[in-house]
Structures are given as C-alpha cells and as structure tokens.
Design brief:
This protein has 161 residues and is α+β, with helices and mostly antiparallel strands. The protein has 6 helices and 5 strands. The chain has helices at residues 2-33, 45-58, 69-75, 91-100, 129-132, 142-159; strands at residues 36-40, 62-68, 83-89, 110-116, 122-127. It is globular and about 75 Å long.
Length: 161
C-alpha cells in the first residue's frame, strides 16, 4: 500500500512540475510578445512592404534601408520565405532620444519586419519603442509614444486594417 501511495505521489509531483514549467514558459512567451505589435496582413509580403514604403513616402519619412532577406539567402544558395526589414525614421525625432542616452542608437532607426510564414500568411511586426525605452533613460519621453503611434499606424494601414 505504501508503495502505491509513494508511486502516486511521485507521479503527482512530476505532473505538478511539468505544469509549473509549462505555465512559466507561457508567461515568459506572452511577456516577450508584449514587446511587439504583430498583425496579419491582407496582402502578400511584397505588396505589404511596398505599401509601407508608399506610406513612408507620403509622410515624408526617410527610408534608410530595405533588407530583402529572401534575396540575400538566394545569393548564397539558400532558401528562405519572403522576409523584409525596413529601417526608417527622422533624425529630428530620434536625435533627442539619443542625446538623453546615446546607446539607444542600437534601436534606431525604427524597423518593421514583414514575413511570410509556412502557411503563406503574411505578418507585419515592430518592436514597441515604449518597451525598448525602459532599457534606456528615455521612458516616458513624449517622442516615444509618438514613435509607437506612427509605427502602429503604418503597420495597420499597410496590412489592410
């Protein structure tokens, strides 16, 4: 009888341990996801990135670079689904933040990722400046909120939302 009870308790503790690890893992993943804003696009990746570029041009916001990771992969004889990163911004907005903490230059200019998943669904994502700013000495700076609003607006419009 003691052996049966001990076996049941051991299995119960193992299950409890597994459940605890699962809960911690889910919490960590959701905490990580809070740092990003991600939406499904109504368009394919190429059309979505083109829409982003059009929006930026209309807003007279400089595009510093457009990285085509699929093309770069093809150049080295590797395969990758559609994947673009666009770097954009305004020194007028970013410089005051970098004056407060120059290490913020690692995060600027702003970036938006557009990618196609294995189901041919296109996604658009950016890292929220409001979360990044807490790593530097610029949290609560009014420009941070404006950057988040701008990036969200661009992501939503380019995705057909």
């Amino acid at each position: 009888m003691k052996r049966v009870i001990k076996s049941i308790m051991t299995k119960g503790l193992m299950i409890l341990g597994i459940l605890t690890i699962s809960v911690i893992s889910v919490k960590a993943e959701s905490k990580s996801e809070e740092k990003f804003y991600t939406v499904k696009s109504s368009f394919n990746a190429k059309k979505t990135i083109e829409k982003i570029e059009e929006i930026l041009k209309d807003k007279k916001i400089e595009v510093f670079a457009r990285i085509d990771h699929k093309k770069n992969a093809e150049d080295v004889k590797m395969e990758l689904r559609e994947s673009y990163v666009i770097l954009f911004g305004s020194p007028k907005a970013g410089t005051p933040l970098m004056v407060k903490d120059q290490k913020l230059a690692l995060e600027l200019p702003l970036k938006i990722l557009v990618w196609e998943d294995s189901n041919k669904v296109t996604w658009v994502r950016y890292r929220k400046m409001s979360n990044i700013s807490s790593d530097y000495s610029v949290d609560n700076h009014p420009i941070v909120k404006k950057m988040d609003e701008l990036a969200k607006n661009i992501v939503d419009k380019s995705s057909g939302l």
